[in-house]
């Protein structure tokens, strides 16, 4: 199973993600903002980042850009309640390999994570 970094400014969303990922055998770390995410990523080098798009201070798209600059092979799945196709296009252009829509469900998260870890672009819609 994989080491996954959950990045979300909502404690509830991080808790929901953790409750989905840990029973599936993944090891989880959390970050509540973009700066913490970048620090945690540089120290822990997780296999995958589940990254919220909308956050204060530094949004998920900016975090994605900085993660990919730090590690061009970073595997990132975006999570958001923003269903605009422009957000998805920006995330994919930034290098995200998956996209899940909130509210998160176990099925969509685990499917997107599995696809991303296997190197298949897309994920849950």
TrEMBL record:
InterPro entries: Bact_response_regulator, CheY-like_superfamily, Sig_transdc_resp-reg_receiver. Pfam families: Response_reg (PF00072). The keyword Electron transport does not apply. GO terms for biological process: phosphorelay signal transduction system. PROSITE patterns: RESPONSE_REGULATORY (PS50110). Gene3D superfamilies: 3.40.50.2300. It comes from the Bacteria. The modification 4-aspartylphosphate is found at residue 52. Keywords: Phosphoprotein, Receptor. Residues 3-117 form the Response regulatory domain. SUPFAM superfamilies: CheY-like. SMART domains: REC. PANTHER family: RESPONSE REGULATORY DOMAIN-CONTAINING PROTEIN, STRESS RESPONSE REGULATOR PROTEIN 1. This is Chemotaxis regulator-transmits chemoreceptor signals to flagelllar motor components CheY. The lineage of its organism: Bacteria, Pseudomonadati, Planctomycetota, Planctomycetia, Gemmatales.
């Amino acid at each position: 199973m994989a080491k996954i970094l959950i990045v979300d400014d909502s404690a509830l969303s991080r808790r929901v993600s953790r409750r989905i990922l840990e029973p599936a055998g993944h090891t989880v770390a959390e970050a509540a903002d973009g700066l913490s995410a970048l620090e945690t990523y540089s120290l822990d080098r997780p296999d995958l980042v589940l990254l919220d798009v909308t956050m204060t201070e530094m949004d998920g798209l900016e975090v994605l850009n900085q993660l990919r600059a730090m590690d061009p092979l970073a595997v990132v799945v975006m999570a958001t309640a923003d269903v605009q196709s422009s957000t998805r296009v920006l995330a994919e252009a930034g290098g995200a390999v998956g996209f899940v829509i909130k509210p998160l469900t176990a099925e969509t998260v685990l499917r997107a994570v599995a696809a991303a870890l296997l190197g298949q672009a897309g994920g849950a819609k």
